[in-house]
Amino acid sequence: MKDFIAMKKLYYSIGEVSEITDIEPHVLRYWETVFKDLSPRKNKAGNRTYREEDITLILKLKHLVQEKKYSTAGAKKIIEGEDQDPANESNQVLTAEMQKDLNEVKLFLNKLLEKL
Questions:
Q1: In what residue span(s) does the HTH merR-type domain sit (predicted)?
Q2: Structural domain span for residue 105
Q3: Which residues make beta-bridge pairs with 48?
């Protein structure tokens, strides 16, 4: 578990975020054009750098769009607070953070398994 703690980073590449969230990079880039709250910074080389908060938002968007079948417009209203998700629970952000952490642990374990 010590190695996993070292795996936590301040910034993640689009490839890492794609792997953690199981969302294709082209979808992540598209979502940037639709959701104003999703705007990863770019480094000097022009590569996107995602923070923990960005990954949490991406997982919330994934839940709304892919699992609850909201349109991007509907998900945008919920994210921007204009509409209320009837099944919204106060711990939904916590759930997204836990999902992110679980995905990172899964990736770590898979990489560890490959080394065995």
A1: 11-81
A2: 2-115
A3: 42
Higher pLDDT, 25 or 102: 25
The tally of domains found in the chain comes to 1
Find the CATH number of the domain harbouring 31: 1.10.1660.10
Amino acid at 89: E
Q: Where are the alpha helices (DSSP H) in 47-116?
A: 52-62, 72-79, 92-115
CB atoms within 10 A of CB 79: 20
Length of the chain in terms of residues written: 116
Quickly count: other Cβ atoms within 10 Å of residue 43's Cβ.
11
Which residue shows structure tokens 């908060």?
53
Is-contact 7 41, C-beta < 8 A?
no
Q: Are 107 and 4 in contact (CB under 8 A)?
A: no
Amino acid sitting at position 75: A
CB-based contacts of 106: which residues, under 8 Å, 6+ apart? none
Taking 80 as the threshold, does the pLDDT of residue 114 lie above it? yes
pLDDT tens per residue, range 44-97:
999 999 999 999 899 999 989 988 888 898 888 888 886 555 555 444 555 666
